[in-house]
Amino acid sequence: MTPYEQLLQNNDDWSREQIKQDPEFFSRLANVQHPEFLWIGCSDSRVPADKITGTQPGEIFVHRNIANMVVHTDLNLLAVLEYAVVHLKVEHVIVCGHYNCGGVKAAMTSHNFGIINKWIRNIKDVYRIHRSEIEIYMDETERLNKLVELNVREQVLNLAKTSIIQKAWKKNHRPMLHGWVYGLDDGRINPICKMSHEDHLDPLYEFDDLVKED
Ligand code: CO
Prior knowledge:
The chain is built from nine helices and five strands; from the N terminus they run H-H-E-H-E-H-E-H-H-H-H-H-E-E. By secondary structure, the protein is an alpha/beta fold. It folds into two domains: 1-32, no CATH class; 33-205, Beta-carbonic Anhydrase, Chain A (3-Layer(aba) Sandwich).
């Protein structure tokens, strides 16, 4: 059996097992989803959102990219965020990074990664803004992991800077934003920060006229 055939075989086994345990499992989920969480995570294969949080199909809406970035020109992220917040009305938006992230590590070097440079330039900006907090560490891994944490904080702030979140916070639906970091070596999530509609954003980023189209 080839590796990809193995995936299909695993899927066959999984669906049979689900039905055996709960005959209504698929029919219940087939037409509707009510996830309470939006997960914005790293694409890294070692950080599967549902496995590490013990969530089941239907419980978590997922967007992943290199280094769990919230980039305001990323139409993919914006569409996912809008759909999750406005239509699915998720209660929590979680940005989950992970220690020893290859994307963050790449941003700390001067290597030319081709088209990937354009993406990780956003992480270089986080480094530049927080240079003094990072460079107090002499150890390379400690610097990397500090940047991983600071990057998660910045991405939570980037969420709060979107008109999508600002509009939601002005209405009754007020999702909480979370910044977490997952440890590849122990499988544990470290909660780094939280932000709600009661927290204050730098007024420079607050929009006064949210009725206008984005
Ligand atoms: Co990563």
